[in-house]
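B., you asked whether I could sanity-check this one before it goes into the benchmark set. Here's the sequence:
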Amino acid sequence: MLLRDVSINRLVDKKKGTINPIIFSDPDIYQQELELIFARMWLFVGHESQIPNPGDFVRSRMGEEQVIVTRGRDQQVYVLLNSCAHRGNMVCRYDQGNALAFQCSFHGWTYNSTGALVNLPPGSEEAYAPDLRKEEWGLLRARVELFNGTIWATWDHSAPSLVDYFGGSEIYMVPPLLDAEGEDSGTEVLGTVMRWRVGMNWKLPMPDNDTTHFRITHRSALAVRRQYQDDGPRPPRPRQNYHVWFPEGHTTTMSLEDVGDEVLLGNDDPVVNEYLRERYETRKKRLGKLAYRMELPHIFPNMGAVGRCVRVLHPQGPTETEMWSWFLVDKNAPAEIKAAFARGEELARGPGGMIQKDDMENWAIQTQYSKYHMTRTRLTFNAQLGLSQASLHGPTSFGLPGMFDSSPTDANIRGFYYRWADVMAAKDWGELRIDNPAR
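And here's what the prediction gave me:
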């Protein structure tokens, strides 16, 4: 396998700030990612609002693996591998629903909503009796933790707690998960999860808070927006933006100024804007300097975000990715607000959205070119923007966790790929745990 023969430092050079394109298409590297990253990191799998009642379930993914996210009779959330313990067949064929049992269509092995084996094929119970212990043959169950309504799972029971895994980035995750007034448990998933496939490597969109591409990649969308915008001039952008990164590979962007109405940046619908404006003062009293944050952070390895849209990149091969988007909205918002928000998000960030399709074209081309001989052997990708600029220590400089770099910078991109390299080289969590000074 490639990484056994090639030094990880040749793939991601931390001194030079360069990345070898081979990591975006090589099948051996990809197989190791499934084992070393997706089988042991914490992964976002859904939101509690999708499964409010006992028996509710949705299908999700953990890397390539399909899982069932379900709420048991005990009100607990379970994440189960959608693969029968008997012959490996799928036990749940529906994207969502309510069922207190899942039955394999091959031989009829039946499992309850916690994954326990509860029934065997007709006529086979006595034959199995001397040898089979039902309690040992349930569906494979992941370790689960919840965070402000979001559901996370890992296959590695030696992994740190979810909050420890966040490494301080959780402080930036909380505000977007609250409603417009800062009320806890105030958001829900709007409609169903949007899903589509792109011929790209899963890493290329991570992290997608690259501020230098927007006026080039999305200039046609910007031109249309300027032509048809009818709600008056936009407020000026904050004077100082920062990329904030963590040694665990998580990143976000933020301003340290009180941006006031600029919390509304990114949403052009005047109805939605007015709804947010009316509630901002209450939100500010509750959340203080983080009240304006409506942007979720990017969480290593594959949870991205654009505003309150959670976007997860599920690998389906070295050059194929499923993009899943959960749109979060205030649970108690009027129907017209939810409809306006859904319309705006779909037009911008859906698979046919003006913003999303620009990015997807670039990511697909990058992936295709990373397979070619000259690109693989002669090129390295440059992530040196701001390389010589020292990061600011958030806790002492700003009273906030993370390492801060003035925008524009590639510090967030370097942080993601540096962590990728560390995870790919580490044998276990004993080598991966970080005494994070930026918390």
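One thing to flag: The radius of gyration is 23 Å. Otherwise nothing jumped out at me.
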